[in-house]
UniProtKB/TrEMBL annotation:
Signal peptide: none annotated. Residues 1-22 are annotated as: Disordered. It comes from the Eukaryota. It comes from Porphyra umbilicalis (Purple laver). This is Ubiquitin-like domain-containing protein. One of its GO terms (biological process) is regulation of proteasome assembly. PANTHER family: UBIQUITIN-LIKE DOMAIN-CONTAINING CTD PHOSPHATASE 1 (PTHR48493).
Length: 170
């Protein structure tokens, strides 16, 4: 047998939660939700009849996280439906219910994207197709470790046998 805790007057019954009605017959009163985001807890107080979108819009004002980027963990699932129009009384069933919010600010996302673009621009691949590797092959004089046939220094790796390299490339 499952033990059932007594229902507190401010907590809606499951039937009331599905319809958004208040179990104690009052006009609704206020719901207090403790929303934790980035190591900060925000106590939010809204009327019971408010839609869920009112909570997400208020959190947008407090945290600068847009509603479409917010993920609210700890809300009660309702059998009647979901979405931004669900009344808070249907998804908040405990007094001072704790909810965790996940989401990023637009400014933080823009900063990360800007930094990633700068890193990508700095990591360009060097074009080495303009190097004449034929000048450094077997025709290079012995002892000329860093120079080509014309005595000019070359960059890149020394190719000892150009014919074998070309064969491997084929």
């Amino acid at each position: 047998m499952v033990d059932v805790a007594p229902v507190v007057a401010t907590t809606p019954s499951p039937a009331d939660a599905a319809t958004g009605a208040v179990g104690d017959g009052s006009d609704g009163g206020e719901l207090v939700v403790l929303v934790k985001w980035n190591k900060t807890t925000y106590p939010v107080e809204l009327p019971r009849s408010s839609p869920l979108s009112a909570l997400t819009n208020l959190l947008w004002e407090l945290t600068e996280v847009r509603p479409e980027r917010q993920k609210l963990l700890g809300l009660t699932r309702t059998p009647g439906g979901s979405g931004p129009d669900v009344p808070l009384a249907a998804v908040i069933t405990k007094p001072e219910q704790k909810v965790m919010m996940m989401g990023s600010r637009e400014a933080d996302i823009a900063a990360i994207n800007t930094k990633a673009a700068a890193v990508a621009a700095a990591n360009e691949v060097q074009d080495d197709f303009d190097i004449d590797y034929g000048a450094f092959g077997a025709a290079a004089p012995a002892g000329s470790a860093g120079t080509g046939v014309d005595g000019q220094p070359y960059r890149g790796m020394r190719i000892h046998n150009v014919a074998s390299v070309e064969e491997k490339l084929r």
